[in-house]
Amino acid sequence: MSPVTPPTPPSEPAAHRVASSDGVSLAVHDLGGDGPPLLLCHPTGFHGLTWSPVGWHLADRFHCWALDFRGHGDSTLPASDDLSWRGMADDVLAVVELIGGGDEPLLGVGHSMGGAALVLAEQAHPGTWAALWCYEPIVFPRPEGRVLPGNVLAESARRRRAVFPSRDAAFANYHAKPPLNRFTSEALHAYVDHGFRSRPDGSVELKCAPETEARIFEAGLDNGAFAGLGQVACPTTVAASGDGAPPAQMAALVSSSLGNGSLRRFPELTHFGPMEDPVTIAASITPDFVAFS
Q1: For the chain, does the N or the C end have fewer beta carbons within 10 angstroms?
Q2: 137 in a domain, yes or no?
Q3: What average pLDDT does the structure give for the chain?
Q4: Is residue 154 domain-resident?
Q5: Strand partners of residue 205
Q6: How many other C-beta atoms lie within 10 A of the C-beta of residue 147?
Q7: What DSSP letter does each residue of 171-183 carry, written as one string?
Q8: Where in 189-287 does DSSP place strands (E)?
Q9: Paired residues of 41 in beta bridges
Q10: For residues 153 and 4, what is the distance between their CA atoms, to the nearest angstrom?
Q11: CB atoms within 10 A of CB 215
Q12: Which residues of the chain fall below pLDDT 70?
């Protein structure tokens, strides 16, 4: 199957560098737009620019920004090699200083790990957010005394193919099989074009190494965010897909445990909904944040 011609974005996002904890240097992408700053936070194994198609559809209301979390995209790994999700919250708070200056609460949108990082950031520094919109945040309870099971996502990540002959070859591979074959062309190009680095022999390799992705999945299994959900007082939408996987199953409990939560369902989408239907996701985010724009 021949790769689809990449779309031309409205403009090439400007990149910034921001220092975070544990010696991390973050890549932060200015997606542009007019209005209050809105931070977009990606899932494990992805990078900030996978939010670009959603950002294009929010640009008339918001100034969108996206970060590469530690160990992802063009951001660096922590000096201590600690990949716990408290570090992801540190990354969020470091970017908040860049885009908002700490003067006013901001707007945050997160997907999976990105949603959990936003919640953890609010728990660490209450009042960071005016409102949040989280698509299947990885925020699970841990009953007392329960032993957490092995992480199948980590096992799968370690088996991922890390090197392809070219970006076109990577695109064709993902475009032909699930789950990434459900992505729009724009979202898949954003993931491939910016998620691989070139090697001296002309091939390309994932910027987020499979072992790094696996260890982040393992660290996220018990990130501690659930216990403090009642402390998150800002309006928070929890969005759930219809795929029946654990993040979708947990969404109602997460929403009801928040201080000011609401639930929204997208039965036609999977856990990768923001990449599958950026138009619908952007259209859902806008009314929830319109009071702040």
Answers
A1: N
A2: yes
A3: 93
A4: no
A5: 163, 197
A6: 5
A7: HHHHHTSTTGGGS
A8: 196-198, 204-206, 236-241, 261-266
A9: 110
A10: 29
A11: 21
A12: 1-12, 101-103, 143-150
* DSSP string across 18-64: EE-GGG-EEEEEEEE-SSSEEEEEPPTT--GGGGHHHHHTTTTT-EE
Instruction: Return the CATH number at 60.
Output: 3.40.50.1820
- Secondary structure element (H or E) that encloses residue 163, with its range: strand 163-164
> CA 110 from chain center: how many Å?
5
Torsion angle of alpha carbons 260, 265, 269, 274, nearest 10°? -30
How far apart are alpha carbons 139 and 250 in whole angstroms? 8
Instruction: Determine the pLDDT at residue 193.
Output: 97
Q: Which tokens hold the place of 57?
A: 């559809």
Spatial separation of the C-alpha atoms in residues 153 and 166, rounded to whole Å: 26
CA angle 267, 271, 277 (to 5 degrees): 70
pLDDT of amino acid 252: 98
Neighbours of 79 (CB within 10 A): 10
Q: What angle do CA 150, 151, 153 make, to 5 degrees?
A: 155
Closest-CA residue to 293 (of 118, 59, 1) = 59
pTM of the full predicted structure?
0.94
Neighbouring C-beta atoms of residue 278, cutoff 10 Å:
24
- In single-letter form, the type of residue at position 16 comes to H
Task: Provide CB contacts within 8 A for 113, sequence distance 6+.
Answer: 41, 42, 43, 44, 69, 85, 88, 138, 216, 220
Is residue 98 in some structural domain?
yes
228-256 confidence digits (pLDDT tens): 999 999 999 999 999 999 999 999 999 99
Range of the domain at 65: 14-141+220-292
pLDDT at 100: 85
Domain count, the chain: 1
